[in-house]
From TrEMBL:
Gene3D superfamilies: Hotdog Thioesterase. It comes from Ligilactobacillus equi DPC 6820. This is Dehydrogenase. It comes from the Bacteria. Residues 22-118 form the MaoC-like domain.
Amino acid sequence: MTDDVHRYGKQIEEIKEGESLTVTETISQRDILLYLGLTNDNNPLYTQMAYAKQTEYQKPIVPPVLLTGIITSAISKHLPGPGSEIVNIDVNLISPVYHEQYVTFNFEVIKIDLMKEVVTISVEGMDDEDNRLLDAVIMVRPPKMLANVE
């Protein structure tokens, strides 16, 4: 056994209010089909042009859970990073996201609660014309320093 200390994401003491991250993603038809296959979700609003044309959206939209997945993935990878535990998610969907549409997610640390060991992160999703598509507030428990993790 070694005394190596493996660090993953940022610990709460390393995070500052105002810290930010920007991630731009597009959700492909392949991503949507993988989600639908995994969850057995057969909502025609996500895949059928003939159906979607008859709705206010006029074309298929991205399942909201895929947008939430991008948010949680960015938190797990970057801010605070690997080892983080999401303890609460509140997402407000403002406008639909369409297949192959670029979405820029802006993350900002808005509160650090040292007593509860929780960081609150606001997220805003924008399209390429700066229209707001979603906003979210995520409460995250950052990782702690662990010893001897292989």
